[in-house]
Amino acid sequence: MLMQKLREKTKVILWIVTIAFLGWILLDLGMDIVGKRIAKPYEQGFIAEVDGVRIPYDFYRDIMYQMLQDSSKLRGELTDFQERMIEKEAWFRVIEEIRLRKFIEKRNLFLDDSTVFFLLMNYPPPQVYNDTFFRKGDTFDIQKYREFMLDPSNYNFAVQYEKLIRETFPKELMRFDLMTLIHLGQNEIIDNLKKNLTSYNLEYIVLDPASYSMSEADINEQELLDYYNSHQDDFKQTPMINLQMAIFWKRPSKEDTMSKIEEAETVREVILGGTSFEEAAESYASSDTLRKTAGEMGWFSTNEFTKELKNVIDTLKGVSKPLVWRGRVYLFKVEKRKSNRVFLRGIDFVIKTGETTKAEIRNKATDFERIAKKFGFEKAADSMKIDIKETGLYPVTLKFIPFIGENEDVWRFVQDAKEGDISNLFWTPNYFVLCKVKERKEGGIKEFDKVKSIVKNRVLMQRKKEKLKVEAESLRKEWLSKGKVELKGKSYAYYREIKSFKPGQKLYGIPNTNEIMGVVENLKEGQINRPLEVDNKFILIKLVSKSLPDDKDIQKMLQQYAQNISGYRFNQLWNAWKEELRNTRNIKDYRPYLLY
Question: Model's pTM, two decimal places?
Answer without folding.
Answer: 0.69
